[in-house]
Structure formats: structure tokens, C-alpha cells
């Protein structure tokens, strides 16, 4: 089964898995369902009715089942015998805390290492990853949100790649962190503030300042965690 988990170990980060693929039908169907999951139009735990999607997206069952299989590989969809597909359940508060603890242990240090290895090419890649989504530009909010979830995953993965520890990178990738976190809450504040924090990181990277990068990443993760905590109220 094809999944989006980056497993190619090249020197340059393989981010192809995070970029919407070709304009093929299967790709478009995947993106449509991904956006519905991210923006909670299909809420965590909800049954996913294939026939309903067939009517809504006006396609046959084949690309839908293909997309659902891919989303299953990404941990966003679960398939239950005799029941069918449903959206993965919301992560529990405890798991959320554990995830941020793990990220806080690994990502600030990785940002520091990445800053020390920074060059123009890497900086340009990071700038692109951080900025592609841009600010509010009138596009569909739900699509914007799901695209940001993917961009954020890519941005953080790039930093881990430049930090140079593949085990750490794989460990965090394996958690599909960003997809689960972004499903906690569908709110524009989540993206707007994160963009400011990404800019602070870019400034530190541009200066090759390891301690500033470490601090900016710590602040970003702590703020990100605090922004999402109300989802558990
Ligand atoms: Zn981020």
C-alpha cells in the first residue's frame, strides 16, 4: 500500500510525499477526502460512507477506495472488518501531551543543528515550505487549512532532514504528528500564529544562529500546544 511516509534517505529532504501529486483523478479524490478529514467535515471517529462520497465527488468507488487505503496508511482512516471505513479517532489528551513532550525533546535541538548546517539552498527550500501557503488570500478556508497541515509537516520534516539524524526524523514522521494535531481544531488562528512563529525560525536559520533557532522552535511548539489545548475542554 502506498503511503506518504517519507522513507527515502537522500541528503536533500524528500518532501515529495507531502506535495499534492499529479492532477490525476486518484490524486484529486485523495486531496478532497484529506481536506474533509483535516477540516473536520468528516469528524474523528465518524463512519465514512463510500456511496455518499461516490455521489458527492461524482466518481466511481475505485479512486475512493484507493484514497481511503492511502489514508489508512497515514493513520487518518481505520478499516474495520464488516463495518468499513471510519475516520481515525481523535488523539487522547494523554497521547497529545506525550507527543508534545517528544517533540520538545527532539525538535528544538534539531533546529539548532539545522541552523549550523544552513546554506542558501537549504534556506530557500525552508522559505518555500514555510511560505507557500501564504496568508489569508480568499481561498476556501477548509482547503487552506488542510494545505497548511501538509505544509507544516513538510517544513518541520525539512528541518529534521537538515539536522541530519535520520532516526529522529523517521521517529517523528512515523507519528503522523501534524495530521493528528491539525484535526484537533479547525481554526484560522492555528495557521496565522504558526506562520509568524515559522518566520521567527527562518530568521534564526538565515543568521545561522543555533541558539536562536533552538529557542524559536521551543516557543513555536509550546505555543502550538497551548493553542490546541482548548480542544480538550
Ligand atoms: Zn510549525
**Series of H and E elements:** HHHEEHHHHHHH
Structure class:
mainly alpha
Q: How far apart, in Å, are the first and last alpha carbons?
A: 37 Å
Shape designation = elongated
- At CATH level 3, the topology of the largest domain is Four Helix Bundle (Hemerythrin (Met), subunit A)
Number of helices: 10
Strand order of the largest sheet: 1-2
Bound molecules: zinc ion
Main features:
233 residues; mainly alpha; Arc Repressor Mutant, subunit A; Four Helix Bundle (Hemerythrin (Met), subunit A); 2 domains; two-stranded antiparallel sheet; 2 strands; elongated; disordered N terminus; binds zinc ion
Structure description:
With 233 residues, the chain is mainly alpha-helical. It has two domains: 16-87, Winged helix-like DNA-binding domain superfamily/Winged helix DNA-binding domain (Arc Repressor Mutant, subunit A, Orthogonal Bundle); 93-232, Up-down Bundle (Four Helix Bundle (Hemerythrin (Met), subunit A)), CATH 1.20.120.530. It has ten helices and two strands, in the order αααββααααααα. Strands 1-2 form a two-stranded antiparallel ribbon. Helix 4 packs across helix 6, helix 4 (93-116) runs antiparallel to helix 10 and helix 5 (120-131) runs antiparallel to helix 6 (141-163). It is elongated and about 55 Å long. The relative contact order is 0.15. Residues 1-21 have low confidence and may be disordered. The structure holds zinc ion. The site of zinc ion has 6 residues, from helix 6 and helix 9.
Amino acid at each position: 500500500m502506498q503511503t506518504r511516509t517519507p522513507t527515502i534517505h537522500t541528503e536533500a529532504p524528500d518532501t515529495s510525499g507531502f506535495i499534492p501529486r499529479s492532477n490525476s483523478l486518484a490524486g484529486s479524490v485523495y486531496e478532497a477526502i484529506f481536506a474533509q478529514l483535516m477540516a473536520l467535515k468528516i469528524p474523528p471517529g465518524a463512519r465514512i460512507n463510500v456511496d455518499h462520497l461516490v455521489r458527492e465527488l461524482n466518481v466511481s468507488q475505485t479512486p475512493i477506495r484507493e484514497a481511503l487505503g492511502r489514508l489508512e496508511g497515514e493513520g487518518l482512516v481505520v478499516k474495520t472488518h464488516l463495518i468499513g471505513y471510519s475516520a481515525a479517532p481523535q488523539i487522547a489528551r494523554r497521547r497529545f501531551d506525550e507527543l508534545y513532550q517528544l517533540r520538545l525533546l527532539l525538535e528544538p535541538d534539531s533546529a539548532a543543528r539545522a541552523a549550523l548546517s544552513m546554506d542558501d539552498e537549504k534556506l530557500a527550500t525552508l522559505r518555500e515550505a514555510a511560505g507557500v501557503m501564504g496568508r489569508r488570500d480568499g481561498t476556501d478556508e477548509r482547503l487552506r487549512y488542510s494545505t497548511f497541515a501538509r505544509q507544516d509537516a513538510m517544513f518541520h520534516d525539512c528541518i529534521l532532514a537538515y539536522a541530519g539524524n535520520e532516526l529522529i526524523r523517521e521517529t517523528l514522521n512515523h507519528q503522523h504528528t501534524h495530521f493528528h494535531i491539525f484535526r484537533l481544531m479547525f481554526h484560522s488562528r492555528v495557521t496565522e500564529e504558526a506562520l509568524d512563529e515559522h518566520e521567527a525560525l527562518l530568521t534564526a536559520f538565515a543568521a545561522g544562529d543555533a541558539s536562536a533557532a533552538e529557542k524559536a522552535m521551543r516557543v513555536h511548539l509550546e505555543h502550538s500546544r497551548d493553542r490546541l489545548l482548548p480542544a480538550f475542554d
